[in-house]
């Protein structure tokens, strides 16, 4: 029986009321502020990480507007001169929402930065889904959900069928239905969805698409819990390294091989297919161009929802990659500790031998010619190979006419292309094209020329890079050492792939 269909007991409901962060959020004093603000910042724009400065600034503006409205509404009811409905600072509210006893925000420090960042937790998504369900709907479609039930049942029954004859019979039945539909279409006799049927199916699609996007936050949280459990196990491990590796890798495989891990990987592979992305783009464009749908019913974000799915899935994959990185660091630390332990043992043996050198310990000593016999067979000796002398031509070599700093040869800068691709995809959500200069105006270069070159060499399945030699753009940035640099280059544009 599914979890949602299982009967709830009194003890389970009481435990949820006392421990569920979503329940605490719905019953919180400032629940309208929390839900509306977090929905606008994280859910509506599909943001998975916001810096503390940016989030505090947005919340401060929200608090100011609400306090001003509250002051206007209660101007005639002042008592002690303090009319603010939300008297705390924005940073204080964020810390309260991220506190362990609430758990509505996740506060963490990304790699390479000392500024905290925030992300909404799955409890916020669950609370928002419950609040959305309270709205009265003018139109409730049922036909599309009934068709979905039939399709799912057919997939379960026929997908688990092991009899070849039964499978062939089902495929023949589907082929006969298709032949009949083709014949009717050629004769001009085919059914067309009316406006009610279109609205019914679009409503079902919108609800499923939003639920799927919300589920990614919970899937990422489940992987993060596994990461935390592995870190705790590694930190408190006192046994052998082999035993720990078996345990850690077994936990990793159990997650990857679980039902959740398998479905997530299947979804991710399905969405990464170029053909599927093109098909999704065409279908979404066609659906949102239908006249049967009212403008109020169309959600503009759903036109590019597959890009939001990709971003959310990529964040989940990053969490999985952190597990491997943590394991690699553990192995490096363990190797260093074991090497140091071997050296300490050798030094202890040397110190003990020196201590016993001047004592009469004849009964405890013996002479050995060697620690092991040395065997050298004639056929093991390599044949003589004459050394080939390389010919060096020094003619034409002249002294350099400029002074260079040889230390630059040892300065290496590694630029990760994954965050740059994510920045470009974010810029392409609301438009089909985005210029490199506009992107850099919003997200300045942090690693200098190396990062600029990486932008020029980006390759992705969702967009292509177009160079326009007839136009020039001036790009300015500051090197890590503080020096200002400027480059004039052909105009670079990122265009979203539609076919």
Features:
55% helix; 499 residues; Arc Repressor Mutant, subunit A; extended; mainly alpha; three-stranded antiparallel β-sheet
From the alpha-carbon coordinates, what is the Rg to the nearest angstrom?
33 Å
Q: Tell me roughly what share of residues is in helical segments.
A: 55-70%
Number of helices: 16
Strand-pairing-aware structural class: mainly alpha
Global shape: extended
Give the percentage of residues in beta strands: 5-15%
CA-CA gap between termini? 43 Å
Sheet with the most strands: spatial strand order: 1-3-2
Describe the sheet with the most strands. Answer: 3 strands, antiparallel
- The helix-strand sequence is HHHEHHEEHHHHHHHHHEHHEE
- Poorly predicted ranges: 78-83
Mean pLDDT comes to 78
Strand segment tally? 6
Describe this structure in words.
The chain has 16 helices and six strands. With 499 residues, the chain is mostly helical. Among the domains are: 115 residues, Arc Repressor Mutant, subunit A, CATH 1.10.10; 141 residues, no CATH class; 80 residues. The protein has a three-stranded antiparallel sheet with strand order 1-3-2. Strands 4-6-5 form a three-stranded antiparallel sheet. A hairpin with a 5-residue loop joins strand 5 and strand 6. About 1% of the residues have low confidence.
């Amino acid at each position: 029986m599914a979890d949602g269909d299982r009967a709830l007991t009194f003890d389970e409901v009481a435990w949820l009321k006392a421990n569920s962060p979503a329940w605490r959020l719905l019953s919180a004093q400032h629940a309208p502020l929390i839900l509306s603000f977090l929905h606008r910042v994280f859910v509506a724009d599909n943001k998975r990480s916001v810096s503390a400065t940016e989030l505090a600034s947005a919340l401060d503006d929200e608090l100011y507007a609400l306090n001003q409205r509250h002051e206007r509404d209660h101007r005639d009811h002042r008592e002690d001169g303090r009319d603010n409905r939300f008297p705390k600072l924005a940073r204080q509210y964020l810390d309260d929402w991220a506190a362990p006893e609430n758990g509505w925000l996740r506060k963490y420090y990304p790699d390479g930065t000392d500024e905290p960042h925030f992300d909404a937790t799955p409890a916020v998504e669950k609370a928002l889904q419950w609040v959305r369900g309270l709205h009265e709907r003018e139109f409730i479609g049922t036909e599309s959900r009934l068709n979905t039930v039939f399709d799912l049942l057919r997939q379960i029954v026929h997908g688990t069928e092991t009899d070849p004859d039964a499978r062939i019979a089902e495929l023949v039945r589907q082929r006969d239905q298709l032949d009949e539909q083709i014949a009717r279409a050629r004769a001009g006799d085919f059914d067309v969805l009316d406006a009610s049927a279109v609205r019914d199916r679009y409503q079902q699609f919108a609800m499923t698409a939003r639920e799927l996007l919300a589920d990614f936050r919970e899937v990422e949280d489940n992987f993060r819990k596994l990461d935390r459990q592995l870190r705790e196990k590694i930190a408190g491990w006192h046994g052998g390294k082999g035993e720990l590796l078996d345990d850690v890798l077994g936990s990793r495989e159990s997650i990857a091989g679980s039902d959740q891990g398998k479905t997530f990987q299947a979804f991710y592979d399905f969405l990464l297919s170029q053909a599927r992305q093109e098909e999704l783009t065409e279908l979404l464009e066609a659906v949102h161009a239908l006249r049967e749908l009212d403008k109020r019913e169309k959600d503009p974000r759903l036109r590019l929802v597959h890009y939001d799915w990709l971003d959310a899935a990529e964040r989940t994959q990053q969490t999985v990659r952190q597990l491997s990185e943590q394991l690699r660091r553990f192995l490096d630390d363990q190797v260093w500790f074991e090497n140091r332990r071997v050296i300490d043992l050798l030094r202890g043996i040397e110190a003990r031998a020196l201590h016993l050198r001047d004592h009469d310990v004849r009964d405890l000593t013996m002479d050995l010619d060697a620690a092991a016999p040395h065997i050298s067979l004639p056929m093991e000796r390599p044949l003589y190979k004459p050394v080939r002398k390389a010919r060096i031509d020094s003619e034409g070599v002249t002294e350099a006419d400029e002074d260079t700093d040889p230390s630059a040869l040892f300065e290496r800068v590694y630029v990760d292309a994954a965050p740059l691709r994510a920045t470009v995809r974010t810029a392409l959500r609301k438009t089909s094209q985005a210029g490199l200069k506009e992107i850099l105006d919003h997200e300045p270069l942090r690693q200098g020329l190396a990062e600029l070159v990486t932008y020029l060499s980006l390759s992705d399945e969702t967009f292509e890079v177009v160079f326009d030699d007839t136009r020039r753009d001036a790009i300015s940035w500051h090197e890590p050492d503080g020096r200002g640099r400027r480059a004039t280059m052909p105009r670079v544009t990122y265009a979203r792939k539609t076919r």
